[in-house]
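re: ur question from earlier - yeah i can do the single chain one, its not a big deal. heres the input i used so u can compare w yours
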Amino acid sequence: MKRTSILALLLLSSTTQAQDLGHKAPPQSQPITITNVTIHTVAGADIRDGTLAFDRGTITGVGPVSPVAGARVIDGKGLHVYPGLIGANTLMGLTEVNAARATIDFSETGDVTPEVRAAVAVNPDSTIIPVTRSNGVLVTALLPMGGSIPGRASVIRLEGWTWEDMAIRDDAGMVVNWPGVRPIRSRFTARSEEDQTDETRAARDRIEDAFSAAAAYVKTRDADSSVPVNLQWEAMRRVLERKAPVFIRANQVDQIQSAVNWAVGRNLRTIIVGGADAPLAADLLKKYDIPVIVTGTFSLPRRGDAPYDDSYTLPARLEAAGVRWCLASIGGGFETPHERNLPYHAAMAVAYGLDPKVALRSITLSPAEILGISDKYGSVEIGRSATFIVTDGDPLEITTQVKMAFIDGREIDLTDKQKALNEKYLEKYRQSGLIDREHTNSTTANSGQ
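and the output i got, formated as tokens:
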């Protein structure tokens, strides 16, 4: 009993310490105008010495506009405005302490769980959220993991008291983990090729059976409304009716081809997540206009004969091939605390041949288009949501600081746990006289990155 009690206390303590204690931002209460700022609209040309006006969470003016009566005016001289960055493949708010199972909500029990909605399990007080916002990422897509059909993706804004406040789309599409087609030959793999082939076949059968059962249910219930509602298959209705896409995780070229052929055969709107070999399947992807969410550039080559810069050049190769794509981070529970590094994944792609403007688009407007939220997010235009960041430079540069952030017109508090800890331990050296005030201020300004 003592061991059980101590373990419970430790888990409770770790969960409690992982809560953000900051206040949530109130709705925009008055018109705001930012003047003398360089506006990077992404959808069009940059505007130098421009003015950005927004009211009630919506952008009302971009360019040479005059402040309206009663507006709060912010002088943005020397600063830049960019759309809020969008993380298209995250577990934000679904995981906190990987060692504590109670804080992991991205993988449910069972192999086929389409009724799961990722947004419902989000912890709005996660300490990872403020740290992520501090580097400009204001919107994220949540793609659950685990099993063959782990559930439905959600798109959230990184601000709100509850998951309902945060949800932009609580049902953004179904996630499918497509099984590998090629057996793994490695000294680290104990399973035989025959066993791997059997497992692959069984996984495909589970996916096929689930979609067949859901299609039969939808057809039957549409014909007879007295048929009892089955929550599991009802959850797949929007995907089957092409009102929402299916996010298929696939990396190998034959895995991508297999997944696309299956999805096309079922007439599903499809998005490939991963896509390490997507350039090799470019013709197929372009034929059916299937976009790819590239999961990061900070990864090792997947094959021994691949060039060292395989993941670095992937975005440039997809762009050259004419495939629609966007860039996300690696994803997975261990990557979630580092979602703030999203702009640096894009920067790595620039270093290996990608046009800087395309790189910026890949983490703003392109993911907004692929996720179906570009009518409100991803660009700085009249009528779009006032969700943007104000920086002192290019967000792809690691030295750039985010000075202000707004989500739907709400001014976001950019303090976070990292900055608080930085200030705490700087005070130690201030009191000891080991550093002066000027050094302290400089270091504090660059903390949290």
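The first helix runs from residue 2 to 17. not sure if urs matches, ping me
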